[in-house]
Automatic annotation (TrEMBL):
Source taxonomy: Eukaryota, Viridiplantae, Streptophyta, Embryophyta, Tracheophyta
Protein name: Chaperone protein dnaJ 15
CDD domains: DnaJ
Chain ranges of the J domain: 65-129
Organism of this sequence: Dendrobium catenatum
Keyword Chloroplast: no
Xref: PANTHER family: DNAJ HOMOLOG SUBFAMILY C MEMBER 25
């Protein structure tokens, strides 16, 4: 079971009023949304692999056979392949034959020759013919042979980082949306909406009117005035994705090193007493309380903890 200690409702408008829905109303099984999230990611991965997956021979010469394009057998040697290519180029080269269809055919012939003239790529092509069921392995060998040494590793790293960041953001947003919908079904959340409606319209004396179902439009307006803070399924932001964190990594490392240096200088060299903020940070670190949870505890519990420890 996954339990969020508190789910805070905060008014977006009208000051600093807040309330916690409490642990009793915020217990949800992780299987309620983790299964659908896993299914979503698997479907997305399957879609990507399906787009990449073509027939074993199709990744080399499309739907044609490279040997048949050159008019040679699979046992032909290098000189026979070269001779067949030059013979066909005299017939189908655009300079020799202006027919548009001949131009298209010559492009295929030239591609087949580029594949078969090299021993390494020819061996890969022959392997793909013998093992058409190994689609992903043959595809990986093809792209590694043709693009592995031509692609800038920095571009590959950047592309991978962007793809991972996009998947991370979609995953976090899906998780947050599902958790938010589950919270809105709890009695505590509905009671908070009812209290907010009474606060806006004044106390209702008519019991029938008070017990009526809240209008959907009014419920949506009141819901927009509440800002839910769900621990364990926070609203995703661009600052938390891998790409942004990677860019800000030098700044984050420098800031942390500067903090450690200032801490060492202030409390180990100068022997100064702990400030309130530093004592709060030290207490949080000693108790291993997450920063968000510590901040949501408010001033009174943290004050009691600080006086108890120091």
């Amino acid at each position: 079971m996954l339990q969020w200690p508190h789910i805070f409702c905060t008014r977006k408008l009208g000051g600093t009023k807040s309330m916690a829905l409490g642990p009793a109303s915020s217990r949800f099984s992780i299987s309620d949304f983790s299964c659908s999230r896993t299914l979503y990611l698997c479907s997305l991965l399957f879609l990507v692999l399906s787009l990449l997956a073509r027939s074993a021979c199709g990744i080399y010469c499309d739907e044609d056979d490279c040997y048949e394009l050159l008019g040679v057998s699979q046992n032909a040697n290098g000189s026979e392949i070269k001779k067949a290519y030059y013979k066909l180029s005299l017939k189908y080269h655009p300079d020799k034959n202006p027919d548009p269809e001949s131009r298209k055919l010559f492009v295929k012939i030239a591609n087949a020759y580029e594949i078969l003239k090299d021993e390494a790529t020819r061996e890969q092509y022959d392997y793909a013919i013998l093992h058409p069921e190994e689609v992903f392995y043959n595809t990986a060998r093809y792209y590694h042979a043709y693009y592995g040494y031509k692609t800038d590793p920095r571009a590959v790293l950047l592309g991978l980082l962007l793809v991972v960041s996009a998947l991370q953001y979609l995953n976090q947003w899906s998780r947050y949306t599902q958790a938010l919908n589950m919270v809105k079904k709890t009695p505590a959340y509905k009671n908070r909406l009812r209290a907010l409606e009474l606060e806006r319209n004044g106390l209702v004396t008519n019991k029938k009117k008070a017990s009526r179902q809240m209008d959907k439009k009014v419920e949506e307006e009141l819901s927009n005035e509440l800002q839910l803070q769900i621990q364990g399924a926070e609203k995703p932001t661009l600052w938390n994705i891998f790409a942004v964190q990677f860019i800000l990594l030098p700044y984050a490392v420098g800031k942390k090193l500067l903090r450690k240096f200032c801490w060492f200088w202030r409390y180990h060299i100068m022997k100064d007493p702990l400030t309130w903020d530093d004592a709060s940070y030290l207490t949080q670190a000693c108790l291993k309380v997450p920063r968000d949870t510590w901040q949501n505890m408010g001033n009174q519990p943290t004050t009691l903890l600080l006086f108890g420890l120091f």
